[in-house]
Amino acid sequence: MDTQWPRWEVFKQDTPSKPHQAVGSVHAADPEHALLTARHVFARRPQAVSLWVVPAEAVFSVTKEQLEAGTVPFPETPPTTKPTLYYVFRKTSHKRSMTFVDYVGEVSAAGPAEALKEAQSRFTDAEALAWWLVPALQVVKSDPSREAIESWFEPAKDKTYKQQQYYATVGSHVSKHKGAKR
Amino acid sequence: MKPEVKEALIAKLTALADDEVILAQRNSEWVGHAPILEEDIALANLTQDELGHAQIWYGLRQALDGADPDRLVFFREASEFRNAELLELPRGDWAFTMLRQFLFDLYESLWLEAAQRSLYPPLAQAAGKILREERFHLQHSRAWVERLGLGTEESHRRLQEALDFQWGYAQQLFVPIPGEALLVAEGLLPDLETVKARWLEYATQRLQQSGLKLPINPGYQPADRSHHTEHLWSLLAEMQSTARWDPQAQVW
């Protein structure tokens, strides 16, 4: 029996003026639990104002290479399907190892294949290395209230050792204490 | 500040700090052992937060009497600690840990809310600062109480057993320490009776919604914070061993 809980993709927004960015994933029993663990794992020290979680299986992803090879792995959508809202995420750089895709906007489409076409025609300001399309109904968001933001994200601002480069300052090298007596 | 007020305030700040540091030590035992990686990280976060809160309370005491927080934490004997017994109980299983966290987070959130109105500004400010984190802690532990209580037969049984065991211990959080009445009268601290009424109402509602029954017989209810279970001695032995072995800790 597979006892692993479902996987959720986590998107973090650093400031109100920045897009939500994929930062990684968590395992969790349900959406509320996923948001709680995402806060613990991804926003304890880093700056954040909002988190979204999405069941990993609800993400339709396709890479530039797959598009060039004509192997788009999206399921067929029956012709009678009514359009729904999709969130569009796009990867435009190989430089940052920790960030995969950024939120760019929403499209209305009858299925992921149509959503992809819409996205390709609308979001043309940069080359897409990968697209993620997520039905809007599957996106679960952290509480945007002032009180929730204060409780979930504000304490991070007061935490020490926010960045990896600070870790070296926790202690001092043993050579400095050579000869120190117990 | 009148000397008797100062003395009582020092005692209360010590009790607040000791609660945090002892719970942090217990929760830290989960690091590397929690049911999933995400919750392992969560417990490490809770532990660090509680330690941060302890540091704030010990700091307020230090401003009053100059006591060094490290000396208080690492060089006092068990009989000198003023934490509630609930917090020193062994971590038990996940249900035991999460239920204790819920009962304590709820108490702390409600107490801090009221303590923000303290007429002693450093305490009022500290309460506001700590409350932000406690609200998130409470959401986390409450989510677990719901899920375990309404989860499987086994998770429900384990959580109910934890509740039966802890309910009496939890009542100690609302027993005033010697001199506390004076601090309440001076407007420095919230009245614990009022906090307890809110705690009981909220806890009862949440626990019942999670399918649990409040114990008819609350069992052992500790009162005096200078008394402890045997478990505090072994906890301190581990927590204090390094500092006592090498107080300077210059080479590591």
Give a verbal description of the structure.
The complex is a heterodimer of chains A (182) and B (252). With 182 residues, chain A is α+β, with helices and mostly antiparallel strands. Chain A has one domain. In chain A, 20% of the residues lie in helices and 26% in strands. Chain A contains four helices and eight strands. In chain A, the strands form two sheets. A four-stranded antiparallel sheet of chain A has the order 2-1-3-8. Chain A has a four-stranded antiparallel sheet with strand order 4-7-5-6. In chain A, a hairpin with a 7-residue loop joins strand 1 (7-13) and strand 2 (21-27). The longest helix of chain A is centred in the N-terminal third of the chain and has 12 residues, at 31-42. The mean pLDDT of chain A is 89. The mean pLDDT of chain B is 96. In chain B, helix 2 (37-65) runs antiparallel to helix 5 and helix 5 (121-149) packs antiparallel against helix 6. Chain B has a single domain, classed as Up-down Bundle (Ferritin). Chain B is globular, with a radius of gyration of 18 Å. With 252 residues, chain B is an all-alpha fold. The longest helix of chain B has 29 residues, at 37-65. Chain B starts with a helix and ends in a 7-residue tail after the last helix. Classes of the chains: A alpha+beta (182), B mainly alpha (252). At the A-B interface, helix 1 and helix 4 of A face helix 2 and helix 5 of B.
In one word, what is the shape of chain B? globular
Summed over residues and divided by their number, the pLDDT of chain B gives a mean of 96
Spans of chain B of 5+ residues with little confidence (pLDDT < 50)? Answer: none
SSE order of chain B, as H and E?
HHHHHHHHH
In short:
The complex is a heterodimer of chains A (182) and B (252). Chain A contains four helices and eight strands.
